[in-house]
């Protein structure tokens, strides 16, 4: 993107934050729904509590996808800010640092670089004229 600016990065960061927030919202919605259903069957408080805690503890398949999309958006924002000398102002990097450990960030960026190299290698090369 030729005209990459802080507003564009802020927009990517907002989308990523929204997706990460949605992950928690969906889990909470599932917990509330399960609690309501189990309560209607007159099952005791302890089994309901255990069931709701299991819903929170077991990763849901769509949650992993939401997190993956959010992280790809953040890494994209970071790379674009870096390429436009805006890394210190990068909202995507700020969010990632705020919510993840430095080790996790290193793994994320290293993995992204590796994946992007493979994508570039798979792209068909233009034919020489």
Strand element count: 0
Main β-sheet description: none
Q: Pairing-aware structural class of the strands and helices?
A: mainly alpha
Beginning-to-end CA distance, first to last residue: 28 Å
Mind explaining what this structure looks like?
This protein has 129 residues and is mainly α. The chain has one domain. Helices cover 78% and strands 0% of the residues. It has five helices and no strands. The chain has helices at 6-40, 45-57, 61-83, 91-99, 102-122. The longest helix is centred in the first third of the chain and has 35 residues, at 6-40. It is elongated and about 60 Å long.
Task: Please sum up the structure shown.
With 129 residues, the chain is mainly alpha-helical. Helix content is 78%, strand content 0%. It has one domain (6-122).
Task: Throw out a few tags for this protein.
single chain; 129 residues; mainly alpha; elongated; disordered C terminus
Task: Please outline the helices and strands.
Layout: H1 6-40, H2 45-57, H3 61-83, H4 91-99, H5 102-122
């Amino acid at each position: 993107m030729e005209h990459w600016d802080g507003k564009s990065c802020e927009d990517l960061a907002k989308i990523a934050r929204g997706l990460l927030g949605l992950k928690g919202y969906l889990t909470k919605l599932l917990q509330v729904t399960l609690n309501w259903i189990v309560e209607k069957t007159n099952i005791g408080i302890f089994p309901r509590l255990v069931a709701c805690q299991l819903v929170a503890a077991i990763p849901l398949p769509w949650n992993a996808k939401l997190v993956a999309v959010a992280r790809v958006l953040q890494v994209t924002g970071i790379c674009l800010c870096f390429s436009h000398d805006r890394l210190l102002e990068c909202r995507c990097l700020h969010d990632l640092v705020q919510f993840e450990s430095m080790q996790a960030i290193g793994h994320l960026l290293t993995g992204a670089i590796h994946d992007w190299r493979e994508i570039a290698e798979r792209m068909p090369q233009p034919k020489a004229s």
